[in-house]
Amino acid sequence: MFSLRFLxxxxxxxxxxxxxxxxxxxxxxxxxxxxxxxxxxxxxxxRWLENGxxxxxxxxxxxxxxxxxxxxxxxxISLMVGVATVLFAGLVGCTLGAVAGYxxxxxxxxxxxxxxxxxxxxxxxxxxAIMAFLGQGVGNLIMALMLSRWVQYCRVVRGEVLSLKExxxxxxxxxxxxxxxxxxxxxVVPNTFASVTVIATFGMAIVIITEASLSFLGLGVPAHxxxxxxxxSEGRSYINRAPWxxxxxxxAIFITVFGINLLGDGLRDIFDPKLRRQR
Amino acid sequence: MANHKVGISRRDFLYKSSAFAVAAAAWPGLLRNAHGAxxxxxxxxHSSVADSVHPYNHSSSPIYGQWQHVIEPLIEYDxxxxxxxxxxxxxxxxxxxxxxFKLRKGIKFHDGTPFTSRDVPFSVERMRDEKGGSLxxxxxxxxxxxxxxxxxxxxxxxxxxxxVFLDRLDNRLIVSxxxxxxxxxxxxxxxxxxxxxxxxxxxxxxxxVFTRNDDYWGAKAAIKEVxxxxxxxxxxxxxxxxSGQADFINNVPDHEVPRLxxxxxxxIDQLEGTRMFFxxxxxxxxxxxxxxxxxxxxxxxxxxxxxxxxxxxxxxPCNGPVGANVLGADPKLKRYPYDPQKxxxxxxxxxxxxxxxxxxxxxxxxxxxDREVCQVVAAQMVKGGFRVELISQEWALFWDKQGVNGGxxxxxxxxxGGLTDADTxxxxxxxxxxxKRTNYSNPELDKLVEEQQKTPDSKKRIAxxxxxxxxxxxxxxxxxxxxxxxxxxxxxxxxxxxRPDERVMARDMSIK
Lengths: 279, 512
Prior knowledge:
A: 12 helices, elongated, B: flat
């Protein structure tokens, strides 16, 4: 099981687990209150640089808040937004996609037209528009991201279901007297899980980046909640004077997205029938 | 290969050393030419340049300064004398419902026609023409009639005596009626004025060129040609100044100032700006109708600490309801000292022993470092016993009928630009019915504001304004914060008489 074949999954999984631990145990791990301002200690460099203080391992930001604690707490938002969005968007997208693909005709027409409307706009633009309309907040952010992400699941599942429903085992299930929803639920939908898992992991990485982008644009969560994107945004104007304000949150985003992508890549290797045959 | 020469040949040595000698000899000259401003032309990179050729299609301080190169006002405010001085007008009198202006004699427009009183009502009609694109009409809302009994006299008749009319008349620039008759709708494309510079060209996107008027009625300008270019990115303006592409820029970022002060070819001019920042309170919302809560809020916000830490000390905390340079400021007034313990006590007295929930609104990105400022304010107020929710809104939403101007926001961070007379602030924010921004209404304060507007004697007027200021502080009607610095960068040999109203005019410049 621990062969090189699964290396991507192991590394990606380890990074993701670390993120989960950080997020869940943030109050235990963070050395300080991420919102406590010490204006006198503002813009302190990380401890290993000149002028650094052992009290602030990764330095302080423009309001004298501890960078390490903020990064640890920032993982909560990334994680919460990432998981919640993927779950909700997956649920909505898969359901609509399965219904549209399986029943076809009017249901398919309606769902396809709606998803085409959503696809016509760039994904970030929809998220920005919805956030501007709803206002700041974690719930609103998840809502906005979900509304702009469900289409991906819908399209993929619909396509899969379209081909699956013509297969013999589906005809057999029907011939045995299975009702539509039963066949869909027991025989068709489970067969789409492989592709959904893969797009869900990649989707989570995209969602985390989008959350950071929206926070960077000031449309994410309220200012006092630390997120990596808003930390980047606030640190940007100090990039000459205090580069650690942008380097550390940037690194955090990079490592997280890298880990999730590795995991997704590994999962695809396992699930993809073409790649599987080659092995 | 064994015989390969090491070192430099004689010919090479001669070439290189002579090239070096020429370069060394020319270097100071090159430096001077590349990085100094010249009398022939000054290039100004500004974040705010006229958006059209229509000189009344805005109400923005920097843009008034740009058009004032060509067309001039009757009067303007002199920040050194702290009083109004005549430009096209020689003298004026406040007579009850009338303001009588005597115009300067012998002034000619750029096309050679004489400036007379008839040009004034013609220009005012243009400013009142909102359909034609003017944004300056409200300044004349109480003017009933403009009379021109002779070529040198203009009389403004107002509905009721108006002592602050000079403030409304400041920045109202006069165009030529003769040119208007000649060019009709094309008057602004062929702008004719009396100013120290003539209009040369305007390009969409903010590229404005003026050339010196050698027949100017006043002191002739030192610089021949002025080029304004709109550059909104701070870093781009700064790079242009450092490379010598621009001779003058505005809004130098404060954290770049220490470095630029050591720069051999750049001078930094830093002065107190006339934009005042404060936290406004809306009396239609609880708990803000309670005086003790408002005082507690005042005690819990430490504006000097914000200036010191967020703006690197480059700013001016207000001691009282307006900054020290504003007409009507009272040197005897003090701001509420920072005292979170006292704030907690007051909150407990007001019936909030366990603290009190408030929301602080702002529009991120509108003002310098507003997001940081509001986060610090929130943290300070938490220490004073408040629980603060920070809400940032997009500017249009924040400012319009759903926000500040509809009286819908309970507590917000805002800046009032061009504040030179306390009347402007008191009238706009605290007088019954002028705006809905605070929903404050008190007959006592209304009376003071009205009375000073009717008082022609400046000393008496200031005394009443100070009385109103004391009342505002005692009642803690808002939380005054600070004025920030206007920071300009210029080529070192460019002399500039600084002014705090965001106007940059070449007539104030000379070359050393």
